[in-house]
Amino acid sequence: MSPKAMARPGGRSARVQEAVHAAVRELEAEAGRASLTVPAVAARAGVTPSTIYRRWGDLHELLSDVAVERLRPEEPPADHGSLHTDLEAWARQFLDEMASPSGRAYIRDALLGDPDGSNAGQCSAYAADQIEVILGRATGRGEAAPDVEAVMDHVVAPMMYRILFQPGRRTASYADQLVQAALAAPVPPD
Amino acid sequence: MSPKAMARPGGRSARVQEAVHAAVRELEAEAGRASLTVPAVAARAGVTPSTIYRRWGDLHELLSDVAVERLRPEEPPADHGSLHTDLEAWARQFLDEMASPSGRAYIRDALLGDPDGSNAGQCSAYAADQIEVILGRATGRGEAAPDVEAVMDHVVAPMMYRILFQPGRRTASYADQLVQAALAAPVPPD
């Protein structure tokens, strides 16, 4: 979220943000991506175009903020009873969602209208938070667990690299192999 | 490179492509990114705007093709005498170049105007080709070497993930640590 888009929850600023985000989602669903222009979004949201330009800079930055909202996980990762099954289920779902046409479109939007990198950082933080829940649960069960960074580097990063740079090179078992390797690697001492 | 931009080397098509790419590079160097519009590029290249629209679709697709050209390595990786030193030197240089402001801009351009993913695939193929040279050399020296995919997954992908999603989380020793870990991992049997 760019600093411009920060809003006090409940204030006028937050209401404008919610109306504009909703307008983007509605217009896109009704008339497709090509229908998304700043004047059309402003008209649907009941604000002036200059409100949008002032707050988001341009359409790309607005779409980036909307994409990040859509990439926010809706619930904590499921508890399947062991680190291996939890992480494998999470990685499979992450790969499925992010590699889908809408997932890829949101990632591109998030990266694109993001001059300061804060939206991309937010996407990464969502994944790290989910992994932290899984690893914390494993530690609570007495299981040895890698650290969050190791999982980001060796499970999340390779999946995201394939999604962005090697479309078509994604096999069903790819997430499983990465999880297997990350859990087989020696856990570094604290 | 999108199929539209394919050209027979030496033909009229190749000359148009070279003139248009050169016009983008010159205009950007002289007047900055905001100066890049299809009519301005066409005027500088001595072609009509419709030639550009017909061949590239839009400005984003043209910029993506130009970015991929700029990301093409100019020479094979240096030979420092061992797999470890070769891969470490390559990874450090890759991280330096790709994380620089111009490197990041080219990666974004390459990803952005790339509806079919072929330009992103080309970027990835450039890295894989360089790594293949390094690994082939190591094998020639009798050194045990991981396969190209393992280096892509566990050295290239984590660097690219940090560049795109975690700006600011890139430390000088990060490339070295990834190479160290990739070379310490057991080499899977053929």
From TrEMBL, chains A, B:
InterPro entries, alphabetically? Answer: Homeodomain-like_sf, HTH-type_TetR-like_transc_reg, HTH_TetR, Tet_transcr_reg_TetR-rel_C_sf, TetR_C
Per UniProt, residues of the HTH tetR-type domain are: 14-74
| DNA-binding region location | 37-56
Question: Which keywords does UniProt give here?
Answer: DNA-binding, Transcription, Transcription regulation
MF terms per GO, please?
A: DNA-binding transcription factor activity; transcription cis-regulatory region binding
The reply to whether Ribosomal protein figures as a keyword in the UniProt entry is: no
SUPFAM superfamilies in the record, alphabetically? Homeodomain-like, Tetracyclin repressor-like, C-terminal domain
Q: What is this protein called?
A: TetR family transcriptional regulator
Q: Which organism is it from?
A: Streptomyces glebosus
